[in-house]
Design brief:
- It is a single chain.
- This protein has 351 residues and is mainly α.
- It has 20 helices and two strands.
- InterPro entries: Ankyrin_rpt (IPR002110), Ankyrin_rpt-contain_sf (IPR036770).
- This is Ankyrin.
């Protein structure tokens, strides 16, 4: 497209500058209630903004295929202008719109290392969604080349990715070599997300025991949070049936045994997770799943067998005692354990 006819502004302070709106116009947001506003915005774009929107769409489409990186470079060169110093740069208003596309995220998601490099060298902004996509891909490929690029070009390894994601390490906790890479790059294992979800709490549910031990040793913080509950939930749901040793380790470190599983509201306010989980702790999870080994461990270590539970997930929003929960889910073998106030003492005598 010949951009000379549009006389795009060179500075954001210029009256003809078009604020980038590509992301707002074309990125689908679940639970969004501004669809009508977006449609209205599309129909009220100036001719300049429409031209910038078309250029940006053509640019983003370059990243939906396995085409070579030089096509991206050629596209960017076609919109370069010469500065008084003689240096050529992408026309500033055009660049602002291109920078507002999902190009970097798509390149990271597709594992297109050279395209990522081109964008970073041109000064494209590194956003959390691109880092998240790169981390997910690295978990699949075990290749950190793109993550290395993102960090080398300025991404803070300890910056949150989402409200419930303290850092990029949270997305790769299942892969020990990637956890080690994150730690080598300076990840702080004691961090929590903006909403308060700690790295250790997430790791308790999905990381290996060796990885969890490493993170706990690096965190060096006072044991707190719902790590025990999260480990028990992973065990109960079948996602990670190896959590008994993890729970034993966490209890040895002093993590609270009766802490309820915490839910964290999303920015949109659609807190479905809180409705489903209600008030459940490690013992409640083990009971409804019929995990006798986990139930025995928790009771032997002092879990409160009288603490009631209430959730849409497992009690139909009725308040039940642990014994009632076991009966409701047909795990009658657990009833004597939950009624036996002396199980801890009996276990100690056996030892």
């Amino acid at each position: 497209m010949d951009i000379s006819q549009f006389q795009f502004a060179s500075r954001s302070s210029d009256p003809t500058w078009e604020e980038p709106r590509f992301n707002a116009l074309h990125t689908i947001r679940f639970f969004s209630d501004n669809l009508e506003d977006r449609e209205k915005c599309l129909h009220t774009l100036s001719d300049r903004a429409r031209a910038l929107d078309r250029i940006s769409m053509d640019f983003q489409m370059l990243f939906g295929s396995d085409g070579p990186a030089h096509k991206v470079e050629s596209f960017l060169r076609s919109y370069e202008v010469a500065l008084p110093s003689g240096i050529s740069v992408v026309q500033p208003n055009v660049f602002a719109w291109l920078n507002d596309t999902n190009a970097l995220r798509i390149a990271c998601q597709g594992n297109h290392q050279e395209k990522v490099r081109v964008l970073l060298e041109k000064g494209f902004t590194i956003r959390p969604d691109a880092v998240f996509s790169a981390a997910v891909k690295a978990k699949e490929t075990k290749n950190v080349a793109i993550l290395e690029l993102l960090v080398d070009f300025g991404w803070d390894i300890n910056k949150p990715l989402r409200e419930t994601t303290a850092s990029l390490m949270c997305t790769v906790l299942e892969v020990p070599e990637l956890v080690h890479w994150c730690l080598e790059k300076g990840t702080d294992a004691s961090l929590s997300s903006p909403s308060g979800l700690a790295i250790i709490d997430i790791a308790a549910g999905i990381a290996s025991l060796d990885t969890l031990k490493l993170l706990v040793s690096r965190a060096g913080s006072t044991p707190q949070g719902d790590a025990v509950a999260r480990a028990s939930y992973s065990h109960a749901s079948g996602d990670r049936p190896d959590r008994v040793d993890v729970v034993r380790f966490l209890l040895d470190q002093g993590y609270p045994i009766d802490e309820f599983f915490r839910t964290y509201s999303t920015p949109s306010g659609h807190d479905c997770e809180a409705m489903m989980f209600g008030r459940q702790n490690a013992l409640h999870f083990a009971i409804w799943a019929g995990k006798e080994e986990m139930v025995r461990l928790l009771l032997e270590r002092g879990a409160d067998r009288t603490k009631p539970t209430r959730s849409l997930m497992k009690t139909d929003w009725k308040t039940l005692s642990p014994v009632e929960l076991a009966r409701k889910h047909g795990h009658l073998n657990l009833v004597p354990l939950l009624e036996d106030e002396c199980i801890g003492a009996k276990s100690a005598r056996r030892e």
